[in-house]
Amino acid sequence: MFWTLVWFLVNLLFVASAITYLFMHRAYTEKKRETDDAILLDRLNRRRKLAGALSILLFIAMAAAFMTNMRLNG
Q1: 15, 17, 23, 27: which has the highest count of C-beta atoms within 10 A?
Q2: Strand, coil or helix: 21
Q3: Greater confidence, 19 or 73?
Q4: pLDDT tens-digit readout, 7-56
């Protein structure tokens, strides 16, 4: 039951980070279309990439927790 809870919590974090990434990507592309402020675009791009990397790491953690849960609990 422990690994089911771990998988569920990591899954929640993954979904939240994926949604956050999508909103950050939208903000970046909108500002890229609207303005030429290089400093702002660079900051938004770094935040977007960080959110994307976090989403990838949480996906890997979610998959590992799921596989562990399935192995132990069947």
Answers
A1: 17
A2: helix
A3: 19
A4: 999 999 999 999 999 999 999 999 999 998 999 999 999 999 999 999 99
CA nearest 14: which of 48, 51, 68, 69?
51
Token pair 């890229």: residue: 32
Burial class of residue 21, CB neighbours in 10 A (0-12, 13-18, 19+): buried
Q: 3-class DSSP state for residue 1?
A: coil
Q: What share of the chain is helix, strand, coil (3-state, %, to 5)?
A: 95, 0, 5
Show the tokens assigned to 30.
């909108």
CA torsion 36→41→42→43, rounded to 10°?
140
* C-alpha to C-alpha distance for 46 and 32, rounded to whole angstroms: 13
Q: How many CA atoms lie within 13 A of 45 on its CB side?
A: 7
How far from 13 is each of 5, 18, 20, 33, CA to CA, in Å? Answer: 12, 9, 10, 30
